[in-house]
Amino acid sequence: MTLVALVVATNLLAGQAANREALSELSSVNEVLAESVGAPEVTAGLIRSERGAYDRFSRIVKKRVQAPLLKRVNIWSSEGVLLFSDQGGVFGKQYGLSSAQQRIMDDGGTGHVIGDDDRGETEYADGTTDTVQIFTRIETTGGTPLLFEGYYSLDDLEERRQEIYRPFMWIIVGALILLLVLVTPILRVLTRQVTSASKERERLLRAGLEASDAERRRIARDLHDGVVQDLAGTSFSIAAAAREPGLGDGVRNSLHAANQAIRDTLKSLRALLAEIHPPEIQADGLASSLADLIAPASALGIQASVSVEGAETATDTQAALVWRVAQEAVRNALRHAHPSTIAVTVRSDGKKLVLEVVDDGIGFAADAAPAADRYGLRGMSSLVRDSGGRLEVRSSAGEGTAVRLEVGVDG
Amino acid sequence: MSPRSILVVTLSSVLGAAALATAPFAVASDGDGVERGACSNTSFKRLRVVPATNNGYLDVIGVVWSNDDDLWDWKMLHDGDLSAKGEVRADGDADRSFRIKRSMLDFPGTDVIAFRAENNRTGETCFVKVDDF
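^ inputs. structure came back:
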């Protein structure tokens, strides 16, 4: 595509350059004719409109102006009077000069007008309208400034343009093809190297992620099999000790309090384990997994609840999506919203699975930063979109926050 | 000379003169302007003006028949202005002595074209004019 654009653009520029060159050639032809025919042969008799002078000048023009491109010759006075035209009949009248002609008459040099610049003087012309009119200022031997105007066919101009352009076109196309031939193997090697490097980078990244995951899994397993089991055993022992008869109320209460502290610590540890290594979520275990998510809330004095109904129809993938969104929403609520209550509900009507995480925290204003940015749900939003679901975050300052996820249930 | 011989000679002279007077002049086509006549007893002239094909020009042809090989000065006038002039040597062996052809611009309205030739040696002058062309 780039090569095609390059060829088209280059050809366009070459075509314009060829057009300018062809026009420049015609201008040079006109200048030579003006200097060799126009200036020396325009007599005082012609300026005085003597018919014999017209005849003599027209014969000179016919005899000496043999340029095949030239279709017509006009001689203009500085007042815009057509002193002579080899088309006959129209001279002696005042048609006026065009702005381009007037500029050349004033400043000298050569100018041109492409297309029909007819101001009436072509009434006796041969019907040729597709012309480029090139005019050159000349001076008679008596010093009278005049314009020598030649009409040249646009078809001839185009033919000349093609003659100039064609070799350039082949040079351009040939050079580009040669460049393509030379560059293609290099590009192929470079592409192969980039692809190889990309695959290697991906492999390293995947290995790093797997290593990290394995390490997190190992830590989680060690915590679960070690500290959590130990604390659970300690909790059971303390509970058993607290039930021993003969203990004083103070000691019993202290044991209950210690046991409660250990149980709270266990909840926090389980939540931490879920953070470190999310469990393999399954639809029928969604409720307990969500319960683990809100476990830290009670330690913060937040009343948290989980309600799941009808999630059995969801796939494990959809359940995992619900858990991931709920995890992000609950984490944001605990960290930023300072709520007194958090309610996590999951409902399914058989067609769609709906998760709502609602808190009564400080919320945020509608004109504040976008919710997805503020609550780190941007990743979740794209994840939800990719799964064909819809994520909505509603909040206002002091009114709490509601995160709602809808995802279709297959089957 | 018998009366019969006189009649034959007279008839031959008349017919010969008629043939001499008419034979050199071509017949003009429609739209052409032609004037012809005698310059003297031995010389004849013709001026023919023909519109060129759709290009705004006239072809003007002046011809002189004379029995000599002298130098002649000639001029062509267009509405009284000198349009062309020159010098030419007559060709006494040809069927016409000299023929001058020039193009002129065809102006709107009437064009008056004249052709004048003068024998440098004898001073004989041929003048012919096409009016109202």
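Residues 1-30 of chain B have pLDDT under 50 and may be disordered. Strands of chain B lie at 33-38, 44-51, 57-65, 71-78, 81-89, 98-105, 113-119, 125-130.
thumbs up if we can close this ticket
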